[in-house]
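Agenda item 2: adenosine-5'-diphosphate complex prediction
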Amino acid sequence: MSEQEAFFQPDAVDAHPLRQALLWRLAGYLKPYWPALLALLLLMSLGAFLEVMPSQLTLVMINRFMAQGSLQGATRLVAAFIAVLAGGFIVSFLRYYLLAWVGQKAMVDLRVQLFTHLMGRSTHFFHRNPVGRLMTRVTSDVQNLNEMFASGFVAIVGDAMSLLAIVGWMFWTNAGMALVALGILPLLLVATEVFRRRAGEAFRETQRRYAAINAYLQEQISGIGLVQVNAQEARSERGFRALNEDYLEAFLRTIFAYAVFFPVVEFITSGTLAALIFYAGFKLKAGAITWGLLLAFIQQSGRFFRPIRELAERYNVMQTALASSERIFRLLDNREEIPEAPGAKPVAFEREIRLEDITFAYDADGRRVVRNLSGVIPKGRRIAVVGHTGAGKSTLINLLMRFYDPLEGRLTVDGQDARELRLRDLRALFGLVLQDVFVFSGTLRENILLDRPEDETRLVSVLEQSQLKDLVARLPQGLETQVGERGQKLSAGERQLLAFARMLYQEPEVLLLDEATANIDSETEAKIQAVIERVSHRLTTFTIAHRLSTIRDADEIWVMDQGALVERGTHDGLIAQEGVYAKLVRLQFTESEAA
Ligand SMILES: Nc1ncnc2c1ncn2[C@@H]1O[C@H](COP(=O)(O)OP(=O)(O)O)[C@@H](O)[C@H]1O
Ligand SMILES: [Mg+2]
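Presented output:
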């Protein structure tokens, strides 16, 4: 499978995830809550005991009182009955509550751990994993685990205890009847096993298809603009419908298994009752058992089949959850991060940043996007990069920020290899402004500050410098204006100004601009150009320029072509060379003439 295909594949749902290692690792998340788990265990054994009590009381009630036709002296028994019911109520309440509490606590821990882990992944990782898939990890996969905890794991222990209590009670009261009641058990186990296999396979298939629906939905909503502009709604809908029909088909297969299984269990249960009554008929006649005993047994065998029936369903829940946990752990074990050397040094930038014979490819065995590129960015100077689309310009920024490490060659800051520097320090050197600005929902102020300390004078100066002051003055709520999800309420130009303000507030050493003015109207562009002009006198700038007119006075212009640095020099020098740059300038000049 190519990487492209793998990207769009729904998540694999492993067929046999029942692995001890997984369970042990999951158990680790419950460890901090062991006192609560212990309490749960006690509650469950108490619950199991209370489960057989009503039958025992029924038995006594019938044999001792009803048989004599008088209820005299039965008060204590009735009181015991009520106490058992009330006790059962309290135990079951506490059990549910505690179970949910422990489960949710553990899930919070896991979700936060996943989130923190995600935030630390490298850019490469995010390029390979669609957002929808990562969201599924943190939301529904964790939810599946919780379900397993609530109605799998612990419930199975509870069920097992109930079963044990019931079987124990049966043998204790009458071994013969107990044997009759349990005689049918092998048949039930066979039926359960058949069901488990059939339903299990179909169930996993529904999971896979459900994941496909999610992935499709996520993609279509993200691309809604494109869908609507190209009037692709009907096609999208067909795709969605097809996926849903696939899902329905698999779902019906699971339902078929259930629909067969439940009546079979009913049938077996009735068979057991018949056998009990038949057997008891003889014994009653012989006076070997009492009516009370028969009734109590009938009552108990009803309770007996419930946990067994549920066990089969729980198995599916466990399967899903284990598959989820496997995916979660695979994500947690992902080591795609930009490594920081042990004892990484703080960054000192006094002289220059240097790219030394760098070769880079996004996939280690793929096309070289940057080839043997060397260049110096001296402190306080202005470097501009130009070249056709796809030449590798943005990739240089990725390398400078250490979103990726070069395959060959190295990046140095004042002679220190970037790999030996503190990652945070290195990134803090740069103030990055891209063509597409990301704006978080929240206020303008929050978007400028991010989580940096608030400094009102700096903020005022930043607003002034970035020309955002006019906009803020125009807004009735000023800096406290909500910008909407992804900053929808701002125009592209305003978002760009915001990005500059954000960058300036950071007070970086080096300004990195990647076609920052490509998307905006000429009026805003003039504004931004003025901003850049002003700050570039005190900062080092590394500008990827879309419009060549904006970089005329750069100290050095790098001309890139297919990953290589083919020319470098000042504007005048390069024009005089009559090379690639001169051609690019002429091309743009004629374009703007034509416009
Ligand atoms: N994340 C990525 N994964 C794989 N290939 C990429 C990635 N980003 C860019 N490329 C490829 O690298 C080449 C250079 O891209 P880029 O540096 O963005 O070019 P430029 O900014 O000069 O237009 C292009 O051919 C592009 O397809
Ligand atoms: Mg680019």
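Discussion summary: The chain has a mean pLDDT of 86.
Owner for follow-up: CH.
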